[in-house]
């Protein structure tokens, strides 16, 4: 029964799309140059606005590794500062960063 309902919904959706497609084609043909230009401008503004919203959400560190600048002192930035490797595992004598879990090297023996 559910499959029949889905088929009916698909047919309704397809017929609605066909009507919309025909209406849009008729509207485009009957439009003046001024209306067409206004529509293009509105489309362009919408795309630019969407692009700006998307780009403002990207963090400034995005793709930092791909845009590496050798003359920049990354170690001075606290966001990238990792400190020295000074913790030694008591089981396997592996070096770890401060704050790394003990299980990272040998699972505590």
Automatic annotation (TrEMBL):
Q: Which domain of life is it from?
A: Eukaryota
Q: What's the protein name?
A: Uncharacterized protein
Here the segments flagged for biased composition (Basic and acidic residues) are 8-20
Q: Identify the stretch(es) annotated as Disordered.
A: 1-35
Organism of this sequence: Elysia marginata
């Amino acid at each position: 029964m559910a499959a029949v309902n889905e088929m009916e919904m698909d047919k309704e959706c397809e017929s609605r799309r066909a009507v919309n497609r025909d209406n849009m084609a008729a509207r485009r043909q009957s439009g003046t140059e001024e209306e067409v230009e206004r529509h293009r401008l509105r489309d362009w503004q919408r795309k630019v606005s969407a692009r700006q919203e998307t780009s403002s959400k990207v963090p400034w560190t995005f793709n930092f590794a791909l845009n590496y600048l050798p003359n920049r002192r990354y170690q001075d930035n606290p966001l990238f500062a990792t400190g020295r490797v000074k913790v030694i595992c008591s089981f396997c004598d592996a070096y770890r960063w401060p704050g790394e879990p003990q299980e990272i090297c040998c699972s505590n023996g």
